[in-house]
Each structure stands twice: as structure tokens, then as C-alpha cells.
Design a protein that fits this description.
Largest sheet: 5 strands, parallel
Bound molecules: adenosine-5'-triphosphate
CATH superfamily of the largest domain: P-loop containing nucleotide triphosphate hydrolases
Mean pLDDT: 86
Strand content: 5-15%
Number of domains: 4
Number of helices: 18
Distance between the termini: 47 Å
Structural class: alpha/beta
Low-confidence stretches: 388-401, 455-460
CATH architecture of the largest domain: 3-Layer(aba) Sandwich
Shape: globular
Oligomer: single chain
CATH class of the largest domain: Alpha Beta
Strand order of the largest sheet: 2-1-3-4-5
Length: about 450
């Protein structure tokens, strides 16, 4: 069914002819002869677009436009006008009209204008939908956890989100640091501006400065064009500096200045740029220890740790395990189109007893795998693959022999090493070759304790 168009023209004949012509082009049309009739039609019918004459005896097209826009700001209104009043029609665009068509007009032109308006409206409403989906994803109530330690952490997140204070998140790998950083951004007044994430550990030392601050053409071999850095990209928004403990000391000094003075110079440039960014940093390392070892600047630490938040490890909030497991299991089952109603009591006990060195991410992966291998409607203990140094009696309780794990890890290692070799250690390209995200590659490199040395520098 085509979009519904309402034609408003006090000359009944003209309105009917136009409505019929549009109907022939596949639109659903209705015609009325006064602004009052148009308002009452719109109140009772789903109308996608209004095409109205400007001069009408009871209420002018302009008044109709204003009245329509009051109730439905997103409704496209196109004005039909005689040549003599085109100037006035231009003013109407300022009042919110989408466009005008000058009489006498060609039906093709009217159709083209209508289509343009409907397309733009579709894009705008799709954007609004995506935005609300995104905001929904980072609303606090979608962050799962009921335990007092988790709720206390969320309370702190809620308190700091509204301010522009720097936040330092500390927590083991997989505890949800990036998710919390996003929640801070999407619950702050900066939510409509960019959230830019940089994983300081995943970028080779030689490139991190240019990644953060950008560079000018010719700044170093391979810098063939000017490039914007992440600080500029995050202007007026939030910059998430993940694994900040891995940032080289020399870069730490420049980051400190950028935060303190809100200015920096791109690599190879002497021109200072001004930025307004809110910083959320995260680290799994103990930065106090890094300071004692002279690996981290104390002044930067105090700048970042205006509001420090510690994310609890999953084993410190075991009561949340059933809730999280059920959530990830249901999600995985839905994605796979499998009917799985939950976990058996024994499986649940095994999950609660396990140490979870990889925290929530490990639990998520464990549930995805369980959803794949589960035969019945319940996940059983044998469907769980639990491993790790502290796993104790429930370790590797599954149906797979433990040497298969070692074999899988060896294979994974071979794939990653080969991809890195083929791409001279350029992780972005290696990840592309492996068909995984750069972040996921980075986690594998860490998990497999692979040393990456970059052989050649490449720049786009
Ligand atoms: N409270 C939570 N509720 C639901 N899902 C969560 C929660 N916390 C984390 N997750 C999920 O767990 C996974 C790991 O979270 P995230 O990537 O934010 O961790 P991280 O601490 O940044 O990890 P790393 O330090 O290894 O980068 C993500 O898929 C995230 O969506």
C-alpha cells in the first residue's frame, strides 16, 4: 500500500484531479477543500504527507501548516502556490514546510517532491529508532545485576554520569568496563555527541600518538595525508581510553596536557587545536603499582581518577551468576532459533562454584557454547566448558576431553600467528583476514600470550 497523502485545495475540482493523478502513481489519496476539514481528517486518519494550497478562505495554508506541525512535527507538508506568492512560500519553509511547488505544476515534479519528503522522513525516523535502541542498550536497567556490590557500583556510575568529571574504571578483563563507559556517555548531557573508544593496548607504540592526536601530511614516512585523531573525533563527546595502563610514558605526557588544557598539536604540526572532551579511562592493571614502577605518571593518574570506580569481578558477585547466565543463554538460544528453557540445577551450581577468571565475557561465551551443544531443552553440566587456574573440582566437566581444548588453542594460535605474519603484524588487517573484529583479535593475542612485533609501517 502506498503512502497516504492528503490534498487540501479550496477549488474542489483541482484537488480532486491532483488526488486522482497521485492515486494513479500508487499513492493513497484523499482530497478536502478547507483547512478545518484537513485538520479533522488528520485527526481520524493515518496521513503521511499533506499537500496544501496556500490561499484558502477559512484558514490559510500557513495557519494550517502551523497547526499540523504543532501536533506532528515530523509530518511533511508541501505548499502549493501560484507564481506570484513564491516569495511568501519561501518564508513558509522557515515555518517548517518541507518545500513548495509553484502552480501550474507538472505532476512529475509534485511526485518527485513528495518522494523526496517521504525518503527524508524515513531516514529521520530510522535514525530516531536506532538512537532509542542504542540508548535502550545502555540504560541502567539493561545492565544486569542485583547484588549489593554491583548496585553500589551502578549508583556511583549514575552519580558521575551527569557531570563532566573524568572517570577511571578499574576492573579485571571482561568485567564490563567498556559497557559502563558507554552507559556513562549515554546517560550524560553529551549523549547526542560522539562516543569514541580507543584501546591503548591494541595500537602499536609507534602509532598511538598519531591515532590519538592525528597527524599532518608528511609527519612521518607513510603519512600521505592529514588525518584526524581520536581526540578531535570525540569533540564535545566522550573519549574512552581503554587499557590506559599500557600507554607509553611519552604519550601519557601529551594526553595529560590535552586533558588539562584541552589543547594539543597533531603529530608534525605546530598549530594547536582546541577540544572539549570528557575522558573515561579504564585499566585492568593496578595503576598505583605502575606508578611505583615508574611506568605510569602520577599527575596523569590524579587527573583521571577524579572519580574512580571499581568494577567487581564476577566471583565477587556470585549471586548475579544465575541472572546473567539466564540472560546470555536466552539471547544465544534466540539467535540460534533453539528452544532452551534454562539450566539444570546441577549446571547452575557448577556455574556458581566456578572462579570465572574471564568474568562476564567468559560467562557469555560459555552460555553461547552451551546453547550450541545442548541437546535437550535444558543446559546440563556436560554442556559447560569451564577451565582456568582456579576452577577446582568443576573444571572441564564437559563431554569434551581436556586435550581437545589444548588442541583447539593450538589451532587458534596457528591461525592468529599466520594471519599476523601475512599482514606484517598489522592487527587491523590480520583481524579482517580472520573475519573477526580487531578487538576480538586483541583478546585472542592476550589470551594466547602472543608477542606481536610490527614489521612494516602502513598508513592509509
Ligand atoms: N552488567 C552486565 N550486564 C550484561 N552484560 C554485561 C554486563 N557487564 C558486561 N557485560 C557484557 O560482557 C562482555 C564484556 O564486557 P566489556 O567488553 O565491557 O568488558 P571489559 O571490562 O571492557 O573487558 P576488557 O577489559 O577485556 O576489554 C560484553 O559483551 C558486555 O556486553
Amino acid at each position: 500500500m502506498g503512502s497516504a497523502i492528503l490534498v487540501v485545495d479550496d477549488e474542489a475540482r483541482l484537488g480532486e484531479v491532483l488526488a486522482a493523478a497521485l492515486n494513479e502513481r500508487g499513492f493513497e489519496t484523499a482530497a478536502v477543500t478547507s483547512a478545518a476539514a484537513a485538520l479533522s481528517h488528520c485527526a481520524d486518519h493515518a496521513v503521511d504527507l499533506v499537500l496544501t494550497d496556500l490561499r484558502m478562505p477559512d484558514m490559510s495554508g500557513r495557519e494550517l501548516l502551523v497547526a499540523l506541525k504543532k501536533g506532528r512535527p515530523d509530518l511533511p507538508v508541501i505548499i502549493m502556490t501560484a507564481y506570484a506568492t513564491v516569495r511568501g512560500a519561501v518564508d513558509l519553509i522557515k515555518d517548517g514546510a518541507f518545500d513548495y511547488v509553484a502552480k501550474p505544476f507538472d505532476t512529475d515534479d509534485v511526485v518527485a517532491t513528495i518522494e523526496r519528503a517521504l525518503n527524508i522522513r524515513a531516514v529521520v525516523s530510522e535514525n530516531a529508532r536506532l538512537r532509542s535502541e542504542l540508548e535502550g542498550r545502555y540504560r541502567f536497567d539493561t545492565l544486569i545485576g542485583e547484588s549489593p556490590i554491583f548496585k553500589d557500583m551502578l549508583r556511583q556510575v549514575g552519580e558521575v554520569a551527569q557531570s563532566r568529571a573524568s572517570v577511571l574504571l578499574h576492573g579485571e578483563s571482561g568485567t564490563g568496563k567498556e559497557l559502563i563507559a558507554r552507559a556513562i556517555h549515554y546517560n550524560s548531557p553529551r549523549r547526542d555527541l560522539p562516543f569514541v573508544a580507543v584501546n591503548c593496548a591494541a595500537i602499536p607504540e609507534t602509532l598511538i600518538e598519531s591515532e590519538l592526536f592525528g597527524h599532518v601530511k608528511g609527519a612521518f614516512s607513510g603519512a600521505t595525508a592529514n588525518r584526524e585523531g581520536r581526540f578531535s573525533a570525540a569533540h564535545r563527546g566522550t573519549l574512552f581510553l581503554d587499557e590506559i595502563g599500557d600507554m607509553p610514558l611519552a604519550v601519557q605526557a601529551k594526553v595529560l596536557r590535552a586533558i588539562q588544557e584541552q589543547t594539543f598539536e597533531p603529530v608534525g604540526s605546530s598549530r594547536s587545536l582546541k577540544v572539549d572532551v570528557r575522558i573515561v579511562a579504564a585499566s585492568h592493571k593496578d595503576l598505583q603499582k605502575a606508578i611505583s614502577a615508574a611506568e605510569f605518571r602520577m599527575d596523569l593518574y590524579y587527573r583521571l581518577a577524579v572519580f574512580p570506580i571499581t568494577l567487581p569481578a564476577l566471583r565477587e558477585r556470585r549471586d548475579d551468576i544465575p541472572l546473567l547466565a539466564a540472560h546470555f543463554l536466552a539471547h544465544a538460544a534466540r539467535e540460534m532459533g533453539k528452544r532452551i528453557s534454562g539450566l539444570s540445577p546441577a549446571a547452575l551450581e557448577a556455574l556458581k562454584a566456578y572462579a570465572w577468571p574471564g568474568n562476564i565475557r567468559e560467562l557469555q561465551n560459555c552460555m553461547e557454547r552451551a546453547a550450541i551443544v545442548a541437546h535437550g531443552s535444558m543446559v546440563e553440566t556436560r554442556d559447560l566448558l569451564l577451565f582456568g587456574p582456579e576452577s577446582g573440582s568443576v573444571a572441564a566437566s564437559g563431554a569434551l576431553p581436556s586435550d581437545l581444548d589444548a588442541e583447539l588453542e593450538r589451532l587458534e594460535r596457528d591461525f592468529v600467528l599466520e594471519a599476523l605474519k601475512q599482514t606484517n603484524g598489522v592487527q587491523a588487517r590480520a583481524a579482517e583476514r580472520l573475519g573477526i573484529t580487531e578487538r576480538s583479535l586483541w583478546h585472542r593475542i592476550r589470551k594466547l600470550a602472543i608477542k606481536v612485533s610490527r614489521v612494516a609501517e602502513t598508513e592509509d
